[in-house]
Amino acid sequence: MLKIAIVGYGNIGKAVMEAIEAAKDMELCGIVMRAQSMHKVTASVPVADDISKLNPKPDAAILCTPTRAIPEVAEKCLLQGISTVDSYDIHTDIWELRTRLDAAAKKGGSTAIVSAGFDPGGDSVVRALLEVLAPGGKTFTNFGPGMSMGHTVAVKAIEGVKNALSMTIPLGTGVHRRLVYVELKEGYAFDDIAAKIKADPYFASDETHVYLERDVDALIDVGHGVNLVRKGVSGQTHNQLFEFNMKINNPALTAQAMAACARAGAKQMPGAYTMIELPMIDLLDGSREELVRRLV
Amino acid sequence: MLKIAIVGYGNIGKAVMEAIEAAKDMELCGIVMRAQSMHKVTASVPVADDISKLNPKPDAAILCTPTRAIPEVAEKCLLQGISTVDSYDIHTDIWELRTRLDAAAKKGGSTAIVSAGFDPGGDSVVRALLEVLAPGGKTFTNFGPGMSMGHTVAVKAIEGVKNALSMTIPLGTGVHRRLVYVELKEGYAFDDIAAKIKADPYFASDETHVYLERDVDALIDVGHGVNLVRKGVSGQTHNQLFEFNMKINNPALTAQAMAACARAGAKQMPGAYTMIELPMIDLLDGSREELVRRLV
């Protein structure tokens, strides 16, 4: 049994707990969270404000903190010999994170699975596969309609924002509209906040609309989707057509992917890996023979 | 540069040649085929009737012979230290082939990529990924409409069949109809041949219709498709919806997948692997950094 700790206990942390409960080869050995929130955990599982306080020591930590906290939290675990899985979703910085965590993992004798989840994650594997099957051509990733967790967290981190929701609307061919719904704290001007949101790296390159709302929570639906399309060339043959669609509960999917990556991490040599660097079979529970017979 | 030999020069062999020409990291070092067919090769590339006659020795052989010849041909290459890629497509016997070739590859210090192509192959990776993302539930693989190469070859192998084409028609939820068009050699009874086709392991479990035709070649279109559907459970969350569609030229896709697998095989330890046992990144040409930055 793989002993797993969950670090951070929000939407994703709770969903990871469900994924671990459903897995036959993993057990939850503790939750790491801020001391002042510990009363929110009702499950009978050890809770600590620092992963080093968990006993027995976890084999792996699934990191469910905000994405910007990941580099530091992951590095700390890895150096202690605790493998990590994160769902770091700032696409432009994934390679840098992987490089940093690769060094820490090799030093600590642990593994880091970087950017597991929906996208980056499952979508990344599909994008890689489609290039394998048709190296020429272009893939378009069309997200939504649905709530983007990464974008929502980014808006909530802006000073003056009381509550927020960022919806992603696919306009086709990889172009998206962002609909951002916010409640503000008293004393903040809507126009200033809207400008800050639009200037954030998460939003700067997309058409972004910001709306003031009275009750953002009433708008929340964590369903999300993707339509991934490639028209490409295999050898000298053009017009090879591919399409991948998901309509999913996003936290549940992300958590499930992360739990599976904890399993795969335990099978790799020390170092950092993204999902396209892992054999799919390592993410699954079962004997090699049973999995090859059933899935190949 | 990876030196590749093509063994067998039919539809797939010719498409593999195109895929190798399009790849920057591979070069074709020879074609292996029966002596009496050698005049059909017009390209300026060494041709031999036995792979051991090629000089320099290939790093890998892409096997484009009929599927039932694969075990013997592959084993012979592997024991000589030449890695192999095949598109063996008898799903029920893949594990047995993998086991046999694993032993030969370890003995010869080579690698065997088993059952690369459309399905098994690309579809296998998608099936594995969907179970990673939603372990509960059922995946349905709906093929076609399109010509099945494996089924067509199986019909052609039946004594008395002069020419044949097997079309796969998706009926949904993994159920298929097989439409088989045949021309017969003189002296053979249609009813006997039809019965033999229906009893063949390729057809025995499907609704199969056999039609006598005057000109089978006029019906041929090597386009094919798949609609792979999963409705599953991530953690405790039901109704996670997934769909993967391809509409492709089948020989071109199969050949491209095989060429990519030759690249991946060169990066593995001696032994046999199916596509779900390979990291997707190993199938792609390019630096790890460039691929992670672009695809993750």
Q: Largest interface, and how many residues on either side?
A: A-B, 67 and 67 residues
- The count of β-strands of chain A is 14
Mean pLDDT score of chain A, rounded?
Answer: 96
How would you characterize the largest beta sheet of chain A?
A: 7 strands, parallel
Q: Which strand order spans the largest sheet of chain A, edge to edge or round the barrel?
A: 3-2-1-4-5-6-14
Low-confidence segments of chain A, ≥5 residues, pLDDT <50? none
- Helical/strand content category of chain A: alpha/beta
Compute the gyration radius of chain A: what is it? Answer: 20 Å
Distance between the termini of chain A: 26 Å
Question: Descriptors for this entry?
Answer:
homodimer, 296 residues, alpha/beta, seven-stranded parallel β-sheet, four-stranded mixed β-sheet, 8 helices, 14 strands, globular
Explained architecture:
Two copies of one chain form a homodimer. The first copy, chain A, is of the alpha/beta class. The first copy, chain A, has helices at residues 11-22, 70-79, 94-108, 118-133, 149-156, 190-199, 250-265, 288-295; strands spanning 2-7, 26-32, 47-48, 60-63, 83-85, 111-113, 136-143, 146-147, 161-170, 176-184, 207-212, 223-234, 237-249, 271-273. In chain A, the strands form three sheets. In chain A, strands 3-2-1-4-5-6-14 form a seven-stranded parallel sheet, with helices on both faces. A four-stranded mixed sheet of chain A has the order 8-9-10-11. Chain A has a three-stranded antiparallel sheet with strand order 7-12-13. In chain A, helix 1 packs across helix 7 and helix 2 (70-79) runs parallel beside helix 3. At the A-B interface, helix 1, helix 3, helix 4, strand 13 and helix 7 of A face helix 1, helix 3, helix 4, strand 13 and helix 7 of B.
